[in-house]
Amino acid sequence: MFELKEGAFFIADAHENEDRRGFWDFLQALERDEIHTPQLFLMGDIFDLLVWEVSASHSFAMPYIVLLEKLCEKMEIYYLEGNHDFNLSRFFQKVRVIPLQNQPLVLHTSKGKDEKFFLAHGDIFLNPILQFLLKSLRNRFLLRFLNVLNFLTFSSISKQILARQKKKNLFYKIENFKILAYKRYEKYQAKGAWVIEGHYHQNLFLREERVKYFNLPSFAYERSFFVVKFSSEVKFEKQ
């Protein structure tokens, strides 16, 4: 089981693209030591599109990849794959990539009251049809075929995906999300432990007797990240 350290940073759903560069600014602040952390958890969908088999997605992300590897000299970095960024392990040597099939990532606190944390992007425990579709999209043979097709059509497929993402509303509120959050929590079988997800962009925090759940907001919207603090109880401080 991995250890969650006090002062760890959590970022979800930055959806970085040519027109949205907040995550780059954040990484540069880390490099310049303007902000400090022992651990950085990237909770998925950090890019609008980053897939190893899709070569058209590489060039934009490469400076980020180089900087993330460099930052690993200062801190531990965990990258939980999302539904826009996956099959990432070949990009990194030092960043710890957590693919969908290995989520949730389970951690415990490094000091104070021992607590467990279940971390995932949020696209797990879905209905079987949707789960099958998401798994199929990660198939390396299918992706290689699509990559060739994308090359032959002058990147028309990847350009369409990115164009749709730029128009997508990342800042919506889901009605009755609290009800969904309770259902999500049950799926993890966390039994009083913390569940932390991205994906839904809802910024919902629940601390109840039997439910400890935090759905992170989209970094693309608020440019905010969260720092975990241990005292008499676990706290997530917005920065």
**Which CATH class applies here?**
Alpha Beta
Alpha-beta classification:
alpha/beta
Count the beta strands.
Answer: 14
Report low-confidence residues grouped into runs of 5 or more: none
Describe this structure in words.
This protein is of the alpha/beta class and 239 residues long. The protein has one domain (2-238): Metallo-dependent phosphatases (Purple Acid Phosphatase, chain A, domain 2). Helix content is 31%, strand content 23%. It contains seven helices and 14 strands. It has helices spanning 22-31, 58-71, 128-137, 140-152, 156-167, 177-188, 219-222; strands at residues 2-4, 9-11, 39-42, 50-51, 76-80, 85-86, 96-98, 105-109, 116-120, 194-197, 204-207, 212-215, 226-230, 234-238. A six-stranded mixed sheet has the order 1-8-9-10-12-11, covered by helices on one side. The chain has a six-stranded mixed sheet with strand order 7-5-3-2-13-14, with no helix packed on it. A hairpin with a 3-residue loop joins strand 13 and strand 14. Helix 1 runs parallel beside helix 2. The longest helix is centred in the first third of the chain and has 14 residues, at 58-71. It is globular. The two termini are 27 Å apart. The mean pLDDT is 93.
